[in-house]
Design goal:
Nucleotidyltransferase, domain 5; five-stranded mixed beta sheet; 6 helices; 24% strand
Length: 184
């Protein structure tokens, strides 16, 4: 049974949610989840440095191989999206620096994977995750469960089952089934 650890991130410049999901076959276990608060930091460069350092520390401590991160979306304030994009970019940069594979998922896709409804609220996502698994969230913020939702979305999107064998994705399937590939 192949075991891997997925780092899920809900990016933010004031509060960033994170979750580490250990996946082995059909079993999943939350290793750690929480938020990184940067509200006391006033300067954008300090916040971005804090994000890079925190993500790097999580990678060093838990050894994930994959990042599943929520993509920024355009809300009412384009300035907020720019700040969110910077936070996301720094988190991705930290993961690339540590040789993690990076997968980005739109918020609607994450909500759809967890609740079956792409328009679900953060509270509905958190409630469904609590129903699906043990979620050790001591935080008052839903950013941590959003990060876990990104990790669970990645896990469900990358499970391909053929002939009783499980593959982590198409690349893995093709590598193990070269005899099935037809080239012209």
């Amino acid at each position: 049974m192949e075991e891997n650890i997925i780092l899920g991130i809900d990016p933010g410049t004031n509060i960033m949610g994170y979750a580490l999901l250990k996946s082995a076959g059909n079993r999943s276990e939350v290793l750690k989840m929480g938020v990184i608060k940067m509200t006391r930091l006033k300067d954008q460069s300090e916040k971005l440095t804090a994000i890079f350092n925190a993500v790097s520390q999580l990678i060093t401590d838990y050894k994930p191989t994959v990042l599943a991160i929520e993509a920024p979306f355009l809300g009412k304030n384009p300035q907020s999206m720019l700040k969110l994009g910077r936070a996301q970019g720094v988190a991705i940069g930290a993961c690339l620096h540590h040789n993690l594979q990076v997968f980005e998922y739109p918020p609607r896709k994450i909500k759809q994977a967890i609740t079956g409804n792409g328009n679900a609220s953060k509270e509905q996502v958190a409630a469904m995750l609590n129903h699906m698994m043990t979620v050790p969230n001591d935080s008052d913020y839903l950013d941590a469960t959003d990060a876990l939702a990104a990790a669970v979305c990645h896990q469900s999107q990358n499970r391909v089952q053929l002939g009783g064998r499980k593959f982590s994705g198409w690349e893995n399937f093709l590598a193990q089934n070269k005899d099935r590939i037809i080239t012209k």
